[in-house]
Amino acid sequence: MPIVYLTTNTINNKQYIGVDSKNDPKYLGSGKWLKRAINKYGTKSFTKEILKEFKTEEDAYLYEVEMIAKFNAVESDLYYNIQEGGNGGWSHIDSSGMNNPMYGKSVRDIFVEKHGEVEGNKKYDESRRVAGAKTSLKLKGVKKSEEHKKSLSNARLDFIANETEEDKIVRRQYTSEFMQAANIVRSDEYKAKMSKSLKLVSAKIHEKVECIYCGKKMNKSNLKRWHGEKCKKA
Prior knowledge:
Number of strands: 5
Distance between the termini: 31 Å
Structural class: mainly alpha
Largest sheet: 3 strands, antiparallel
CATH class of the largest domain: Alpha Beta
Order of helices and strands: EEHEHHHHHHEEH
């Protein structure tokens, strides 16, 4: 029976949300940063708990996406997750490209599919707002390693590259509301630096690379997600 589980590092309390299609008690997860942590601390330093059981794998992956969004797990230093769910756990089948059940779907799409357009959008927006606030409070005074800063930067680049126009509008609106509530005023110097930084990020996101297997050119984020070793011609 497929399950959505929560793996916890008992040394530093960092967690990982994932799907286990076989409900194997020994399986702790396959996330990149989680695996490194397991190698570092050993399996005995991790616990695993079942968050919910499902009849089908697709339902489990839909719930995984919802939970990762709810706790802002991709951006939070409190979690090992580096993807928004629905993708990483399909290694046991041909999950490349359009064969992946989550192909072409954003996190917002998953919420809408599960709860309907009005309620789904409402729940998605609220989950992002609440998760961001919780993460901000928990991370006060927490220092990030250079390695982890780099991983967060790459995750953010992937997120921005796959962001819809609607997502951008909502993100900008929340940022504006937060700054007004906190009475934050940005100087012209800060705005100039941000503008320069965003232009560099945009150039990096839209840089075209070629898949060595099929020869197709695309953004780096798409190469990582659907081509390279995952390419159908690999």
